Amino acid sequence: MSQPPSAIPVSEESAETQTAPTNNAPPPSYVKLAMRNMVRKRATSLFHFALTAAGLLGVLVGLAFLDRYFNS
After folding, report:
1. Local structure of 7: helix, strand or coil
2. Are 64 and 71 spatial neighbours (Cβ–Cβ below 8 Å)?
3. Per residue in 5-61, pLDDT tens?
4. Is 47:54 a contact under the CB 8 Å cutoff?
């Protein structure tokens, strides 16, 4: 729907601002995306958490054993 030439003239600057997107929201942060992904893929996230916990516990027990073995 174009306006006739007798209508109020629109400057080029205001025409550019009218066509600009009004979505000024910043993109979601990495943490927010990671949390959303964890909620969607619940079983995989729990498996990776358990694997990480077991690995960390194994490293700590291994270091404790090595410390006791070499310092006895």
Report:
1. coil
2. no
3. 555 555 555 555 555 556 788 888 999 998 898 899 999 989 999 999 999 999 999
4. no
